[in-house]
């Protein structure tokens, strides 16, 4: 079975329902919001060049109707319902983080428009063209600094991917990753038979021996984060030394290592759950001490009185 219909049903949104950021919004509020684009494509070898996307709904941009998409999916898959997907990841120049194309929302544009504008600026992909379909919107996320991040999912409909041209000031490299690599990355959380129905039973990844290089690993936030706040705040650094997060090294051929973790991993995890109800990544709160995790999740509780109270409590207990 293929992954796309489930995804469309789970995250499909009415086109044109995004709200604008009006000119009277304060700059401080704008800095608290950003949008990213999660871009999917069929693995090139499965994308039969003889079948072209023929839009029957008359969409001028990426707002194709679901019936139009379903017809295309049926045509291109034929009797083989397995359609492997690849997902695009980028690597930032300033902090080395793995990310999706995207950035801050500007005055006078919608969340969706911000994601599409930033993608055009960063990788020269025009997501508003009929060669792409907006599948829907994921649940909003919040960064450690409480910036709201809106995620939009797009499917490439054309046979050939547009030529990617990186913004050299912002990015150093990119790569497409087969989503099966991610789905099979944690043998400790096995897939059920129902979930396996969505995947390729002959995939070499299914029975591949998992090593540290191709499976989910864990490390402390202090060890993986490049946050400046972390380096300046001693108590925050102490907390983050004891908070462990999952990460996965992506199989992208590059002079740089692509380490998927944090917000980008969370969005990827949610995407997989929408597709087949499964994610190989455990919840952070399930692998950490609940008190320590509370301070990590709510850093504004780092007050002198809180620290003194914890020290007194610690002394009483020991």
Automatic annotation (TrEMBL):
Taxonomy, superkingdom: Eukaryota
Bilayer-spanning residue ranges: 234-253, 298-317
Organism classification: Eukaryota, Amoebozoa, Evosea, Eumycetozoa, Dictyostelia
SUPFAM superfamilies associated with the record: Nudix
Pfam short name (any one): NUDIX
Entry keyword set: Membrane, Transmembrane, Transmembrane helix
PANTHER family attached to this UniProt entry: NUDIX HYDROLASE, NUDIX HYDROLASE DOMAIN-CONTAINING PROTEIN
Protein name: Nudix hydrolase domain-containing protein
GO molecular function: coenzyme A diphosphatase activity
Organism of origin: Dictyostelium purpureum (Slime mold)
Domain Nudix hydrolase: residue ranges: 63-199
